[in-house]
Amino acid sequence: MSDIRLRHDILDELEYEPSIDAANIGVTVENGVVTLTGHVNSFEEKHAAERVAQRVKGVRAIAEEIKVRLPEHKKTADDEIASRLIKILDWGAAIADLKDIQVKVENGYVTLDGTVEFHFQRSAAESLARHLTGITGIDNRLRIRPMMDVFDIRHGIREALKRNAELEAENIEIDVSGSRVTLRGKVQSLWERNMAERAAWSARGVTTVEDYLTVENSKERLQP
User: Fold this and answer.
1) What does each C-alpha distance from 188 to 37, 59, 83, 166, 213 come to in angstroms?
2) What phi and psi, each to the nearest 5 degrees, are found at residue 49?
3) For residue 95, what pLDDT is reported?
4) Domain 150-215 fold
5) pLDDT given for residue 162 in this prediction
6) Which CATH architecture has domain 3-68?
7) Are 181 and 208 in contact, with CB atoms under 8 Å apart?
8) What pLDDT sits at residue 147?
9) Which residues of the chain have pLDDT under 70?
10) What is the phi/psi pair of residue 159, to 5°?
């Protein structure tokens, strides 16, 4: 697929997505690497634009440079954002040991620090923060408590990949060193690459995932 066609597809997908006002979002493409620029009215909209671009066939990587420009009526004091976020995290069933999570807000920019048991808890905390009105960005510094059983980690990831109908697990190599996972091999789309990363992060005790998977934009296989 040509870069011109890919850019056109991304712009169409952004326009089609009802949660995004794409009027002020710019898209450039070079060798399948997409750069998103411009500005939006909320951090959630910024995040949504990146998700939309990821799902377009042919995208190999994304550089996200969109700025958040909050309308005057959506600007919120830092102490109010921090207080609301603490309450939301406390209500979130996925978030355990809230006492181990620290929240800092400065000029609408949220920093999460501390430790959790699983990567999904780290992601859940960021997702809850992302939906707050008035935030301009998030720095997720939450760390995962490591588990050092290498065999269990590798086996769990391998089985998760096999269960996923969208992935060809035999094309993905898994290396585990302590709580660090390295993925190598080939996948057919950026979406498959993200699914493989998600499988790796879902293993208990994984603190780092290094993704060296390459995206091949090959032609669709003929059905038997």
Assistant:
1) 26, 11, 43, 10, 10
2) -60, -40
3) 66
4) Histidine-containing Protein; Chain: A; (3.30.1340)
5) 86
6) 2-Layer Sandwich (3.30)
7) yes
8) 66
9) 92-98, 147-148, 165, 217-224
10) -65, -35
Question: What tokens does 158 get?
Answer: 């391998």
CA angle 107, 98, 181 (to 5 degrees): 90
Contacts of 203 by beta carbon, 8 Å cutoff, 6+ apart: 152, 153, 156, 157, 160, 181
- The dotted CATH code for 73-144 is 3.30.1340.30
Report the run of H or E that residue 49 belongs to, with start and end: helix 43-54
Q: How far apart are the first and last CA of the chain?
A: 25
DSSP letters of 101-166? EEEEEETTEEEEEEEESSHHHHHHHHHHHHTSTT--EEEEEEEE-----HHHHHHHHHHHHHH-TT
pLDDT in tens, 182-220: 999 988 888 888 889 989 988 877 888 999 998 876 443
